[in-house]
Amino acid sequence: MSQPDNRCLLRVFFATRAEAPGVDVGDKPLLDALTRRGVSVEAAVWSDASVDWSSADLCLLRSTWDYHKHYAAFLSWTEHVALVTRLWNDVDLVRWNSDKRYLQELERAGIPIVPTTWVRRDESVDLAALLDSHAWSSAVVKPVVSADSFGTRRVHRSSAVEAQRHLDELLRMSGVMIQPFLASVETYGERSLIFINRAHTHTVHRGDVFGQGLKRSVVGSAEPDELEVALSALGIVQQPVHYARVDLVRDQSGVCRLMELELVEPSLMFDLAPEAAEQFADHIVRSIVRH
After folding, report:
1. Second CATH level (architecture) for the domain 117-181
2. Which strand ranges, in their side-by-side order, compose the sheet holding 243-250?
3. Distance separating alpha carbons of residues 260 and 181, to the nearest angstrom
4. Distance of alpha carbon 157 from alpha carbon 256, whole angstroms
5. Is 254 exposed, middle or buried (0-12, 13-18, 19+ CB in 10 A)?
6. How far apart are CA 248 and CA 250, in angstroms?
7. Residue 80 to residues 18, 52, 85, 92, 220: CA-CA distances in angstroms?
8. Which of 70, 72, 154, 276 is most buried per CB count within 10 Å?
9. Reported CATH class of domain 10-89+272-290
């Protein structure tokens, strides 16, 4: 890694994507917090071959929300970056968490996930029969490798032909997960618990992603059972977790269930909680200086 120049002590890259190469609005408070600490922050497109990743003290995965379209290339890129500088989160963690089948491991460890039927790529499945067997009138279909809700769709038993077409299209590209649509998403909503260095910093209420626009707001604190599930899921992970977003929902009985443990490129929604950005900036500077 090259030595930082005299104009700035530290240099950090925010890895982004070609379609939106700048810093995402949710990360602007983090950029500002790092800048105040004398850190040079640059947005760098992960797929840009001209970027010298070794020139940074840290590459922070942020809005790389197209990685599912170039999955093998993305994983290869993370391995390269991890060889020439720090990559957060860790490359092995990225490989594990970027495929949603990690949820199977968490479920085996006792974490209550949303009930899920897993379908292998190119496998044939009758969606209407599957919905009937579970008595699901509505379900959510999503690919096992996906970012920014790519391919995720709510399907209905009443429109099974169209839903089957969508499922078949996804299965030609990747494995698929099928989950019941939980009605509480339309009322209670989802809860996203954000963690910095495994410490809970803020909780965001997220409205129905399938409704009329995703509304977000910070809630005062997480419910005890939500925090318990989130911490239990994080406790399964052995590697350092510099940032995480834990997405939770409640089932028809009100039981808190894990939807996603996001460790790759989650929006941390610092625009709603700038004080959390300050905490993350402190953690970044301490970690770089320490090493």
Report:
1. 2-Layer Sandwich (3.30)
2. 216-219, 199-206, 190-196, 243-250, 256-262
3. 15
4. 25
5. exposed
6. 7
7. 19, 11, 9, 12, 40
8. 276
9. alpha beta
Q: Where in the chain is the domain with CATH 3.40.50?
A: 10-89+272-290
**Residue range(s) in the chain whose domain bears CATH number 3.30.1490.20:** 117-181
- Domain boundaries for CATH 3.30.470.20 within the chain: 102-112+184-262
| pTM check: above 0.70 | yes
User: Shortest CA distance to 104 belongs to which of 175, 154, 153?
Assistant: 175
In this prediction, residue 208 carries a pLDDT of: 63
The dihedral of CA 268, 274, 276, 278: what is its sign?
positive
Residues in the chain: 291
Q: Where are the beta strands (DSSP E) in the chain?
A: 10-16, 39-45, 58-61, 86-88, 117-119, 138-143, 153-156, 176-180, 190-196, 199-206, 216-219, 243-250, 256-262
- Adjacent-strand bridge partners of 113: 258
How far apart CA 159 and CA 22 sit, in angstroms, is: 40
Overall fold of domain 102-112+184-262: D-amino Acid Aminotransferase; Chain A, domain 1 (3.30.470)
Q: Are 163 and 136 in contact (CB under 8 A)?
A: no
Q: Which two tokens stand for residue 10?
A: 């530290």
What pLDDT score was predicted for residue 213? 53
Name residue, tokens 């993370």: 78
